[in-house]
């Protein structure tokens, strides 16, 4: 196997161990280490880093590569220079022929792999494995490329060369520059590994990746290749296993509509629709789940630290021979947190007095977090770069970003106010978030460590130990607080939700009295197309089913407590990114100069009733087919009484009729609704919910997403409070429910007190504020009762004194 010279050109996995990182990189060394530990790893070999070194030196392109880097990158902060250098170097490597003896070595070993697997031309995965991967203080993983379903000698050689060239992606060059690694000192190996013909695949952690609970193994899987999880294209099945007993504790099966599989004709990876009969079936059997957990436990014990593991289950082999581990690396998120608790002399750990502030913005979702920044400008870029626990830094998010927001440790955006998409979703997910930071994407650096203080709205360089430590103590204490029985209040405490997948967790941890706002926009994202395009393609049922499934998850989690579903607000700018968005929003003339006050809400239901009817059918399906009668509805952005009347008529035509267990609310977020509230009551509303975000905007004349005017955007403004008071008083007089689902009660305790004093029926807040708001409301209600008792006592005292006076005046006359 040895080539000419000091080191071998190719080494089989079974020859490797973890100490071989300098020769074959972290990925290949770990595969060999696992094989030695008795872990089932698909067979394969490593084209060593020495082979790459020989290639660039003997073809005399090494000097050219480093000359290009020196000549092209003059300004280390200019991303275009990294892109230009990358383009030149990759073209040079990929056009340079591989020396004959090296080609021969790779091909001969590929033939041995074919023979070993009993295949004429075995499909292989060709994976980059940089020699500095998984080193303390540096993670090169994910910077180079992987090629799947490679078959044949020619295709293999081309893929190996592409992997070599991927050592010089713009991101990899930038990272080495920032970390101070000399480019010539970082080499690359290539793993050539038999492809598992995946029936199912996924990832698992030997601790809970959200809570850090080390007693659990968490497994997420999908049909086909695991790439579907990484890309965010499919919501995976979620399983939790007790590490000691290997008993399955949690089993959440998602609806999986797409799978990435090998095309039997071309051999390439394709995206394929999952047949309906398999969409809601578990992608793993119970025995496969337990076997995976057993292997995860064994890997963790071998390495002595928590692991992030990739696996695949072969469709052609019997159990348990079909279960393979394809990669394992140290878990980083909770390891970083635990490391932050220890005293450190590392250059990235700084004292608060010495901490350098990088950017400042609005503290949109409270919390403190330290991690690596990833600057991204599109969901497609996020899919390639964002790893679990990274700080997501971008201009602004929309619903397309949610899969990547869910894995982020914190979020920082250049634009937006306290009620923008990034702010709302971050609060719901419990992720620290700073918005309106203006130059975050310019001033923050990819892969550099920062501390995000989303309580103060400040981002610092490095790990600010004094901030991280107290934050973790608070997080540790939180579960105990929510585990207690909820305090009883006269005012109902509801919760705002957007993402159905978190409903069960939110219901359990908050013990809210129901959902005061279930937003529809993220359900539309799960469908993946503009509703008008769906209708054009005959996909109406797809939208109905997707919406019904999302609503069902929430209604079931909270049953029998009410869930108030807000119909699509349907703002044109939010639908532009969806396939069909350009045609049916921009070209149709729906995107006006200010989408916040344009073609949206109830008015749009009247103009496009066929789309509104699909939502109505989804609600009816949840209520009738699933028997979840706790779902009510709310009509957003109602400007005129006639809009509500027509919307209600369409609902009735679709079988949604008001009654004791089906209430119809409207959002009060337009001044006309405030002024005409008596007319809306006459039209038959059961309840109202204040959308203080839009109501404040329209009363004060402020774009709520414009960071430049955020300092005067205030839901506590007297004009806004007078509007709330007027509506509550009129509704109380007529027995109509009043609630609030805007941000005001989540942000300001004084607004909560105002609403309770005015007599609001319920208050709906973000998940992280439910327990706090309930305790605050209980205190306010007790205070109000005490005040009333004191008033009553004072009136009784006055009556007694007046009675005594009357007796005193009358008594002498009796003599």
Describe the model.
It is a single chain. By secondary structure, the chain is an alpha/beta fold. Helices cover 43% and strands 19% of the residues. The chain has 32 helices and 31 strands. The strands form six sheets. It has an eight-stranded mixed beta sheet. A hairpin with an 8-residue loop joins β12 and β13 (323-330). The longest helix has 45 residues, at 770-814. It is elongated.
The rough form would be described as elongated
How large, in whole angstroms, is the Cα Rg? 31 Å
Decide which structural class fits the backbone: alpha/beta
Overall mean pLDDT: 85
Terminus-to-terminus distance: 131 Å
Tell me the strand percentage band: 15-25%
Largest sheet: 8 strands, mixed
User: Number of helix segments?
Assistant: 32
Structure summary, number of beta strands: 31
Low-confidence stretches: 1-5, 133-143, 339-347, 470-484
Widest sheet, order of strands: 15-22-21-17-18-19-20-16
Helix content: 40-55%
Give me the secondary-structure topology.
Layout: E1 10-12, H1 21-36, E2 44-47, H2 49-58, H3 62-72, H4 79-95, H5 100-117, E3 124-130, E4 146-150, H6 153-165, H7 170-179, E5 188-194, E6 198-205, E7 216-223, H8 227-230, E8 237-242, E9 248-252, E10 258-262, E11 269-273, H9 276-279, H10 286-303, E12 307-314, E13 323-330, H11 333-341, E14 349-350, E15 357-360, E16 362-365, E17 368-375, H12 379-385, E18 391-394, H13 402-405, E19 410-413, H14 421-429, E20 433-435, H15 440-443, E21 449-453, E22 458-461, E23 463-464, H16 465-483, E24 492-497, H17 503-510, E25 515-518, H18 521-527, H19 531-536, H20 540-558, E26 563-566, H21 572-575, H22 581-586, H23 602-607, H24 609-624, E27 631-635, H25 641-653, E28 664-668, H26 671-675, H27 677-683, E29 687-690, H28 692-700, H29 718-733, E30 737-740, H30 744-747, H31 749-758, E31 762-765, H32 770-814
């Amino acid at each position: 196997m040895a080539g000419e010279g000091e080191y071998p050109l190719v080494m089989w996995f079974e020859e490797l161990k973890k100490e071989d990182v300098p020769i074959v990189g972290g990925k290949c060394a770990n595969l060999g280490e696992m094989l030695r530990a008795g872990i089932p790893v698909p067979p394969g070999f490593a084209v060593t880093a020495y082979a790459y070194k020989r290639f660039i030196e003997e073809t005399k392109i090494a000097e050219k590569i480093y000359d290009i880097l020196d000549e092209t990158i003059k300004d280390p902060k200019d991303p275009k220079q990294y892109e230009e250098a990358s383009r030149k170097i990759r073209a040079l490597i990929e056009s340079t022929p591989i020396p004959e003896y090296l080609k021969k070595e790779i091909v001969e070993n590929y033939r041995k792999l074919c023979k070993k697997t009993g295949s004429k031309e075995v499909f292989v995965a060709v994976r980059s494995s940089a020699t500095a991967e998984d080193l303390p203080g540096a993670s090169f993983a994910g910077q180079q490329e992987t090629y799947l379903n490679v078959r044949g000698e020619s295709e293999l050689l081309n893929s190996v060369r592409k992997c070599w060239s991927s050592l010089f992606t713009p991101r990899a060059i930038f990272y080495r520059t920032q970390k101070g690694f000399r480019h010539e000192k970082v080499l690359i190996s290539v793993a050539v590994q038999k492809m598992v013909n995946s029936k199912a695949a996924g990832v698992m952690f030997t601790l809970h990746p959200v809570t850090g609970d080390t007693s659990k193994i968490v497994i997420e899987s999908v049909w086909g290749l695991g790439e579907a999880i990484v890309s965010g294209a499919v919501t995976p099945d979620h399983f939790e296993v007790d590490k000691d007993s290997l008993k399955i504790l949690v089993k959440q099966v998602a609806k999986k509509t797409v799978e990435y599989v090998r095309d039997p004709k071309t051999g390439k990876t394709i995206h394929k629709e999952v047949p309906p009969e398999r969409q809601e079936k578990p992608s793993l059997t119970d025995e496969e789940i337990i076997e995976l957990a057993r292997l995860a436990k064994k890997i963790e014990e071998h390495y002595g630290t928590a692991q992030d593991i990739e696996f695949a289950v072969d469709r052609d082999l019997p159990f348990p021979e079909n279960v393979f581990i394809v990669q394992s690396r140290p878990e980083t998120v909770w390891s970083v947190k635990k490391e932050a608790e220890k005293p450190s002399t590392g250059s990235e750990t700084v004292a608060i007095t010495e901490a350098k502030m990088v950017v400042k913005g609005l503290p949109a979702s409270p919390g403190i977090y330290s991690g690596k920044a990833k600057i991204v400008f599109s969901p497609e870029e996020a899919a390639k770069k964002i790893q679990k626990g990274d700080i997501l830094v971008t201009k602004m998010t929309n619903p397309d970003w949610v899969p990547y927001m869910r894995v982020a440790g914190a979020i920082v955006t250049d634009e937006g106010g306290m009620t923008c998409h990034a702010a709302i979703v971050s609060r719901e997910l419990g992720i620290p978030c700073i918005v309106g930071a203006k130059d975050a994407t310019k001033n923050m650096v990819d892969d550099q460590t920062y501390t995000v203080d989303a309580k103060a709205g400040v981002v610092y360089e490095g790990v600010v130990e004094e901030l991280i430590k107290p934050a973790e103590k608070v997080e540790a204490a939180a579960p105990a607080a929510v585990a207690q029985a909820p305090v009883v209040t006269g005012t109902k405490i509801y919760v705002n939700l957007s993402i159905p997948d978190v409903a069960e967790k939110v219901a359990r941890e908050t013990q809210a009295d129901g959902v005061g706002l279930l937003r529809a926009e993220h359900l539309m994202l799960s469908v993946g197309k503009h509703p008008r395009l769906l209708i054009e393609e005959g996909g109406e049922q797809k939208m109905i089913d997707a919406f019904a499934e999302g609503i069902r998850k929430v209604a079931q989690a909270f049953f029998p407590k009410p869930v108030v579903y807000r119909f699509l607000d349907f703002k044109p700018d939010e639908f532009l990114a969806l396939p069909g968005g350009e045609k049916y929003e921009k070209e149709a003339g729906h995107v006006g100069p200010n989408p916040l006050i344009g073609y949206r809400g109830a008015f749009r239901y009247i103009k496009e009733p066929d789309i509104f009817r699909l939502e109505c059918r989804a609600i009816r399906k949840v209520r009738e087919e699933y028997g979840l009668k706790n779902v009510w509805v709310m009509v957003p952005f109602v400007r005129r009484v006639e809009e509500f009347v027509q919307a209600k008529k369409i609902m009735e035509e679709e079988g949604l009729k008001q009654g004791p267990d089906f209430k119809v609310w409207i959002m009060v977020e337009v001044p006309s609704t405030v002024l005409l509230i008596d007319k809306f009551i006459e039209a038959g509303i059961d309840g109202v919910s204040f959308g203080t975000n839009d109501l404040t905007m329209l009363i004060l004349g402020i774009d709520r997403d414009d960071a430049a005017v955020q300092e005067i955007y205030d839901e506590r403004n007297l004009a806004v409070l007078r509007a709330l008071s007027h509506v509550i008083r009129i509704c109380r007089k007529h027995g109509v429910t009043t609630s609030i689902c805007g941000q005001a009660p989540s942000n300001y305790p004084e607004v909560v007190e105002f609403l309770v004093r005015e007599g609001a029926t319920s208050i709906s807040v973000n998940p992280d504020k439910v327990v706090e708001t309930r305790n605050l409301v209980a205190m306010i209600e007790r205070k109000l009762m005490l005040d009333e008792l004191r008033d009553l006592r004072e009136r009784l005292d006055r009556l007694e004194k007046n009675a005594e006076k009357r007796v005193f005046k009358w008594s002498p006359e009796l003599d």
